[in-house]
């Protein structure tokens, strides 16, 4: 009986965490006030959902035998589909991301120019020169700023962005992008992209992926604000805003201006995240112990 109950719990847990939880978390806007803890919760829920699905078949096979053939079949199908889609998604997403970054990096190296420093006759450097040798400027009319992670990482700015930004605001933008590179947000987002693609398209939560990306931006905003101040980061956001980015800019400005999150949220979320992540392992131990 223990094996049947644990198998059923694993199946239900997998369905809840992969199909229901992403929609619910995407609507929990309070997480934007604690982006680091929020991303940890998203990671825990996503990885726990995968673990629930992958553990279902081994537990069922080890504990049920032929006593519950339908439950065994459901467990085998769920684990098999999750494993197959994870492998496919990981290969496709990883390969495509690295191909696109390599091509983009080659293009930036070809047409980009070095960010002007004070000794070149440019404005005073808003960041240490040792960090500015990784900054490239592209002759684009749209105000953009982003980073290209990897072994030869760099930050890319458009000429239009430089024209819009003052020295302090430029420093804020560089600190924001350095935070992305330093904390390897690209790996976090790649994990979510893989998990997102692993879920069948009809039941994917597009809002969940959008919210995770927003939390990554908010986390980098926090890193920049600690160095140059929230007001400077806010001015930089406004300076680079476009009609297409207005919605995200409003959300990021609201998060910068929000009151500090209460202690229960800051300290409670890591506990909740750890409990969610541990739950499938606990169920696995219960099943194997009972077996």
Automatic annotation (TrEMBL):
Binds 1 zinc ion per subunit. The keyword Cytoplasm does not apply. GO terms for molecular function: metal ion binding; metalloendopeptidase activity. Keywords: Hydrolase, Membrane, Metal-binding, Metalloprotease, Protease, Transmembrane, Transmembrane helix, Zinc. Residues 135-190 form the Peptidase M48 domain. The keyword Transmembrane helix applies. One of its GO terms (biological process) is proteolysis. Its cofactor is Zn(2+). CDD domains: M56_BlaR1_MecR1_like. The chain crosses the membrane at residues 42-64, 71-88, 269-288. Belongs to the peptidase M48 family. This is Peptidase family M48. It comes from Ornithinimicrobium cerasi.
